[in-house]
Specification:
Layout: H1 13-31, H2 43-72, H3 84-125, E1 130-134, H4 143-146, E2 152-154, H5 160-163, E3 174-178, H6 202-205, H7 214-218, H8 221-242, H9 247-262, E4 267-269, E5 280-282, H10 285-293, H11 301-312, E6 318-324, H12 334-346, E7 348-358, E8 361-372, E9 375-385
Antiparallel strand pairs: 1-2, 1-3, 4-5, 6-7, 7-8, 8-9
Helix pairs in contact: 1-2, 1-3, 2-3, 2-8, 8-9, 9-10
């Protein structure tokens, strides 16, 4: 309806969230319960985090492509604008194509890719095991896949960069550990009909769908990254806000997204608002964690999202004031005094407060003004809604 009335939304939230939920379920179904009971810092956690992000980015790219397809459907094959009823008929066909026909294959691929990613993590923990290619063995197995059945090569062999499953849509092949000698190269028959998309080892890159997928090609890379990361982060924030035990998991997710965008040991330049205020904010994992995650520093989901937005758009920050250490503390309280001394040892000289707007609301971003080892920078510390 919005499209027909002249609006051109980039995304349809209902359809996008539906796709995310379905594919997230496929990830968990394929990977196993390790995808929901993670010990952060483990190989499983690292892999699953990449796979989750891929779910969000793939879903964003798919929805963007679907909306562009719907926009194109406003005009018929003769170059004329369709009537409302004609457009709705076309829209229904497009919806079925994307959210039923395509989704079925995407779901099955996600399940298989997630399962194979889980296996890859196990294999890596074993060092360099001998791997064996195995098909399901029924009449539905493709001839080229059947020709690979029984191939044995060490995990480190480059062959697994080309034939590690899935090797096409609805591929059901797998790889297992085995013993014995490697299959001689002259006996190996490489598959002749694997689509270029799947001529890769998805597990190595932590992806469920290949980078060359048409959705990714049709969508601006910035949109995929920004929107996909935002949704990945939102999911982590909501988990952290509702369940304390997931704080650390969400912290890692958000830290990695920010450092992904700005680079390791990143600095973000901000307008120099006043003499003596450094012209950049330094992003560290600790600063991101304390600013965006820890509840005492950033109490609501909206505050956390606002903080992320401010870090991504530092030119929107307006300097409000400089605060002395302990200005809001009770200096007669021993705990407060110890906290101030701790900050001084860290090199904190002042607090610099910046205001910014997010979703028509005003917020304050508090930064620690740090001078240490001849370096002067601001480090994000807290965010709160302005009263």
């Amino acid at each position: 309806m919005q499209l027909f009335e002249g609006e051109e939304p980039e995304f349809d939230e209902l359809s996008l969230n539906f796709t995310i939920d379905e594919l997230r379920e496929a990830l968990i179904g394929g990977y196993g319960e390790e995808a929901t009971k993670l010990q952060w810092g483990t190989p499983d956690a690292e892999m699953v985090r990449h796979l989750y992000r891929n779910v969000y980015q793939f879903s964003v790219a798919k929805n963007f492509t679907q909306m562009r397809t719907l926009t194109s459907a406003l005009i018929d094959e003769n170059g004329h604008t369709r009537s409302f009823s004609d457009f709705m008929n076309e829209a229904a066909k497009i919806d079925k194509r994307f959210n039923v026909d395509y989704l079925r294959a995407e779901y099955d691929t996600a399940v298989n890719s997630a399962e194979m990613a889980s296996h890859w993590v196990r294999f890596k923990q074993m060092g360099d095991p001998m791997l064996r290619y195995v098909t399901v063995g029924d009449e539905r197995v493709r001839a080229s896949h059947a020709a690979m059945n029984g191939i044995q090569r060490p995990m480190s062999d480059p062959i697994w960069d080309k034939i590690y499953p899935p090797n096409g849509w609805n591929c059901r092949c797998t790889v297992v550990t085995t013993t014995g000698a490697a299959t001689p190269g002259k006996q190996i028959r490489m598959p002749w009909d694997v689509p270029p998309l799947f001529q890769t080892n998805l597990a190595k890159t932590g992806m469920l769908w290949p980078k060359g997928h048409p959705y990714f090609k049709a969508t601006d890379e910035i949109i995929i990254k920004q929107e996909g990361n935002d949704r990945f982060v939102d999911n982590a924030i909501e988990a952290a806000t509702s369940k304390k035990e997931k704080l650390q998991a969400a912290g890692y997710a958000i830290r990695d997204v920010i450092l992904d965008e700005f680079g390791k040991n990143a600095t973000i330049k901000i307008p120099k608002q006043k003499d003596g205020i450094p012209s950049m904010i330094k992003l560290t994992s600790d600063a991101v964690y304390s600013t965006v995650i820890v509840n005492k520093h950033s109490k609501t989901v909206n505050c956390k999202r606002a903080a992320l937005n401010a870090l991504r758009n530092p030119d929107t920050l307006i300097h409000e004031k400089t605060e002395e250490l302990g200005e809001r503390k009770n200096l007669d309280d021993e705990k407060d005094r110890k906290n101030i001394d701790k900050k001084k040892r860290k090199g904190v000289k002042y607090y610099q407060l910046f205001s910014f707007e997010y979703n028509n609301k005003q917020y304050i971003l508090g930064c620690q003004d740090i001078e240490k080892k001849n370096k002067h920078y601001l480090e994000p510390y807290y965010v709160t809604q302005k009263k």
